Amino acid sequence: MSVGYTSVQWNEHKKLYDRVLLAGLLLATGAFAGVSLWLHPRITAETLVLRASAVAAFLLLHVILAIGPLARLDRRFLPLLYNRRHLGVAMFLLALVHGALALVQFHALGNANPWVSLLGATRNDYAIWRNGALNLEHLPFEAFGLVALGILFLMAATSHDFWLRNLGASLWKSLHLAVLCAYALIVVHVAFGAIQSERSLAYPVLLGAGAALVLGLHLLAGWRERRQDRLRLALEADGFVRVGESSAIAEGRGKVVPANGERLALYRHQDRLYAVSNVCRHQGGPLGEGRVLDGCITCPWHGWQYRPQDGTSPPPFTEVVPTYPLRLVDGEIWVKPQALPLATSSDGVPAPPAPPDDADELYVGYLPVPAGLARFVRGVALALLVGAPALAALVAWRQEPFDSGVFEFGVVRSFEGVLYERPLPHLRLGGAAGGGSLLLAGPGKLGPPPEIRGHHGETMQVEGSLVYRRGLTMLELNRPKSLRFLGPAEEAEQRPPIVSLGTVELVGELVDTKCFLGVMRPGAGKVHRSCAVRCLAGGVPPGLLVRDDDRGGSVFLLTGDGETPLDFDVQWAGRTLRARGELQLLDEVPVLRVKGLALLP
Amino acid sequence: MIEVLLSAVALYLAIGLLAAMALHRKGLPRLDPAVAHAPWRFRLLITPGLVALWPVMLRKATLAAAGSDATGAAEAPVAPRRLRASHLALVLVILVGLPAAFFAALWSRGPVPPVAQTEIFPVTEPLPQVLHGPDPAFAGLPIQLRVRGEDRRRQLELEVSADLEQPSIVAYWRPPGTGQEPPLEGLFLGPVWGPATQRFELPGAAKGTLVLHSLALGHEIGAAALDVP
What is the pLDDT of residues A145-168, one digit of tens each? Predict the structure, then answer.
């Protein structure tokens, strides 16, 4: 509690809490990164950061969601509740890193607004019922993550006592209850996203176990609370209800009692009994589970204080909780569950002395931690510091292997060869007797620049960066000003004829060749699908990925048949197609001149 | 539709930014006097929330300017029973919906696309005799070289066990006595890639140098001298 606002009210407990939080995050992300780099050295830096931030954020979210019900079931977890908002903000920041990087990685540098691409790249697949059948396999997963991130942002942005005071506890608590919605959306995001591409059983098992743990804890805590709510007490004629024995309340201790729908807190202070609302004005903590410290009822959640005599906070603080009239009859406490006017002063009801009860230790953020609680909390912290990195390492270990492929990012080389626009734009190096073809693409998620049009068969000088994999090489023309055309090339007439291998029918996944050859890893599959749509829409040459047993596979470049351009829907990217046509070899590049292309269900 | 939605969100946030500035200037100190003396770090911290919740905060600031206590402090404390009921309802909805979505996602996982058809590309049959190799002739590359033969025919076989991770590799055969880089001297054999096995027939004895050259990089990446009659 405070009379003025600061950005963070630091104290030694919060600093220690945050140090442990930071250590946990570093250990978890370090474990993920270390195992990924060790077992999957081909992972790219962007994929590593994307996945590490997601795993760390998701693990942290489980911890955050478990703290609340655990604190209700076992009060020894209350110290973890104390600074939970720092966990929440840290989790949001990690999620933001993941979301921002995904937006840039998969949707920027293309031919559309990245936000439009994020929500609309695969918009056809929002229709989950199509042609009389359920179509869930291709349900876009990005939107679920985006909405969850929006909820987490609202929660992080309002994680300060300023908002608690000015929005009001009801609105604030309702807003923060939305964390459960965010959690559900993230589970769906993972289930329809990463898990569609990651085949290890570990992923659905971990995801399911995490959800079961969170929901199970909430149900257990909720069931216990509900039992208390259901208690109904007999009323006396003048509105008082009997709530218990005075000997059950020790000096300086409280007791939560139900009173016709709500809960009150009974306290004994200096052998006098008082009744106040059980609801702390801060975040609704259970005042009856606290203690009397310095003559004030102290909330066990964050240490807010109220005088038992009138429910007011000690000056200079101004919060007030309602008080209730009570009386003692033959050692039994009777309370009237209608609140007195706020700040009504009362001397309480004298009660016979009761034995002290020091069984429970109370944690308050601004006082030293009791020894027993400290031991317990250290044990929990240690378990988390070991468990979180272990889980992160497991997730990293079970990732699908990454395919080969090299993108010489930042390396610019010079080339001179003969440009051919047909059957698809490529630059041929070497001589007429023998050479190799470089497929052409533009920077980012774009196809070859328009400047090369109309120069078929001419010698071309250009600078660019190479992308290559399994014998296919692409040149990213990222220096358009370096383009020079030196006139028709003699060898264009002498080029070896393109080899035809006859008509074939192939089944495979539609990919964009630039990402697949090495710019992205993975460059295929559902998680990459939106990026593939963006690249194909921008003019990157399409390919059909036909997988072998080892799941590596061969890519066949797709072009139109003769003069007819290739007709396909870019939203087919990442989906399985059947393609029929004439297979040709353009030097080492297999090209399918498509006569028929169909999307498989 | 998506563009319209995004434009509406952008407009909302732009108004929010303006509203936040106005609130910092006048509205907040009227609403909550404790803000007046708060440090700039605090004001920075609450700005994202002001941008996101500007309709609520503007309304409260307007009420405060009219003399009402619009802070939440003036409202009744949270009603835990009602909140617990909402909490329970939300958990129950999630308890039903989440497993349904989870298992639906697992059930709808598509199969890996089917295996490729049997050999589409022309395969040069190996000559029956192995005259040389297997020989890891190219240091640092996952290639086993063999020379195969039958009668006077000679065939070079390159068994590439992994992606070479080099661009545009082609193979040249340099007979003895030629010392210059291809393509000025040498017989162009064809492209080389992995994982795959490529076979190239030689015009004569396997006496000379097999050169692997990267057309894209413009230099040799490996050479193997052979002397197989």
Answer: 999 999 999 999 999 989 988 888
